Amino acid sequence: MTATNAPPHDAHPKRRLRLPTPTELRFVEERRVGHLATASESGAPAVVPVCYALVEHGGEPAIVSALDEKPKNMPDAELGRVRHILARPEVALVVDDYTEDWRRLAWVRLRGRAGLVSSGEEGHAEAVSALRAKYPQYAGMAIEARPLIRITHLAAASWRGDGATSFEAEGEPVRPGDLASLVSGRRSVRAFTDRPVPRNFVEQAIAAAGWAPSPHGRQPWRFAVVEAANRRAALAEAMAATWREQLTLDGQGEEIVRIRLEKSRQRLHQAPILIVPCLYLADLDVYPDSDRQAAETTMAIQSLGAAIQNLLLTLYAAGLDAGWMCAPLFCPDVVREALGLAPALTPHALLPVGYAAKDPVRRGRRPLEDLIVSWE
Ligand SMILES: Cc1cc2nc3c(=O)[nH]c(=O)nc-3n(C[C@H](O)[C@H](O)[C@H](O)COP(=O)(O)O)c2cc1C
Fold first, then answer.
1. Structurally, how many domains does the chain consist of?
2. Which of 142, 162, 185 is a domain's end point?
3. What pLDDT does 127 receive?
4. Shortest CA distance to 202 belongs to which of 225, 221, 235?
5. Which domain CATH number covers 57?
6. Which of 276, 324, 351 to mutate to test the pocket of ligand 1 (most atoms within 8 A of CB)?
7. Taking the model in full, what pTM does it have?
8. Whether the CB of 187 sits within 6 Å of ligand 1
9. Higher pLDDT residue, 260 or 62?
10. Of 35, 149, 154, 152, nearest to 83 (Cα)?
11. Which residue has better confidence, 154 or 14?
12. Does residue 235 share a domain with residue 304?
């Protein structure tokens, strides 16, 4: 590294240890591998790459890592890191991003106290769930029967290459560089700050949508971007009338209807940008029979989903977040009219886009074995 480029190591001698910030925790949570440093009783250091998950323990964040079955011929107590932890509980976990573009370098280091948690002990089952939610590979391993490592009393230090000296100076969220981490890190976000969204990020995301597979390569979708506050408000008001009717039809009480409408309205007001993906069937093949025509439409809708996923991942990689609201599906005419869209466009969803106001709920996923129903 040259003198003009700040190095990706602890360049600040006075860096003090402190509680991890939400952004640091999120950075750690979104990455898939960290390096765990331990030391033997005599002070000999050791570092191993580990899979880990972030959990809550006693109201504080904690890191858990499984002692999985990789070293089959070695009892747990003899594993170097276990021996070290039992002798000296002070450990450090470093999670980092490396890319050739050094402006995107970043790392977070968590120091803490490590201990072993045995099967059946408090927090063990939650840790196993968190690890399995993050790594489907654990579904096929008996980690519930084995002790795991839990690191508590976390203190953080961090560095990022984009000019911000640390994550305390909350700049652009730093997102992982590899595809697997981007795919598993993206979440539906429902609350945004009022920080404006750069136009080029939205353009890049819509361009990425354009690369989705589509029937006959016809790209049967278009996107309306709603940015002006008065247009967002008009859309919210127009849809609210339909929502009210539908919720009342469902037998929801007046108060519930009012609360749900207010929540939805807030989401549209709060997000700096709304993207409305629309189905556009005009370029597709026309068939004399209704079965093939319906299949053609289904293909277009499948393709719209693929396009939206490209868009969401591209936004996420750029440090932005988005949600997915299905409301326009239930009132396409109302949305078309509110936005002045052409009759050939059918609004299918509404994606609020912005910078997340808080870390979203992170739902786990079904294990891989549930998803693959046959393979022979
Ligand atoms: C077709 C579709 C419609 C959705 N509609 C809504 C919606 O109306 N409101 C909402 O809050 N989330 C909606 N979602 C988001 C899902 O609730 C969310 O993707 C799911 O719970 C998984 O969470 P994650 O995206 O954070 O991983 C929708 C997702 C899809 C794919």
1. 2
2. 185
3. 96
4. 225
5. 2.30.110.10
6. 324
7. 0.70
8. yes
9. 62
10. 149
11. 154
12. yes
